[in-house]
Amino acid sequence: MAKPVQETLSHEEQRLLLELLFAQRYALELVCCELADIENGDKQVDAKRYQQLLRLYDRLLQET
Amino acid sequence: MAKPVQETLSHEEQRLLLELLFAQRYALELVCCELADIENGDKQVDAKRYQQLLRLYDRLLQET
């Protein structure tokens, strides 16, 4: 399988994308969509990833 | 000034966000919006950042 795109980006490119994500205030929405998909049963993830996503959601809610 | 949120995230959290960004196929749109804002004169950036964004845009176009 090909490497996921995000792993082929340089550190600078990754940083730039994260900057845009926060500048355009889209980070929380992104995590929200993913959690909705999981909770609706549209997407299967393991418990560890679900916990990571929940923590990230709380983190972003506090910070933004 | 407070630290930008993205700089307060752990490496794992940053990675998770980038993963979602690509999974939801939003990365290219994010860069596109930023370039449109700059080219319309709605946002001022220096030439270096503009070049970085253009390179990232080309990169993502090829990869996705």
Run of helices and strands of chain A: HHHH
**What is the distance, rounded to the nearest whole angstrom, between the alpha carbons of the first and last residues of chain A?**
36 Å
Gross morphology of chain A: globular
Number of helices of chain A: 4
Q: What attributes does this structure have?
A:
homodimer; 64 residues; mainly alpha; 4 helices; globular
Walk me through the topology.
Two copies of one chain form a homodimer.
Chain A: H1 5-8, H2 11-23, H3 27-39, H4 47-63
Structure explained in plain terms:
The structure is a homodimer of 64-residue chains. By secondary structure, chain A is mainly α. Chain A has a domain at 26-64. The first copy, chain A, contains 4 helices and no strands. Chain A is globular and about 35 Å long.
Summarize the structure in short.
The structure is a homodimer of 64-residue chains. Chain A has 64 residues and is mostly helical.
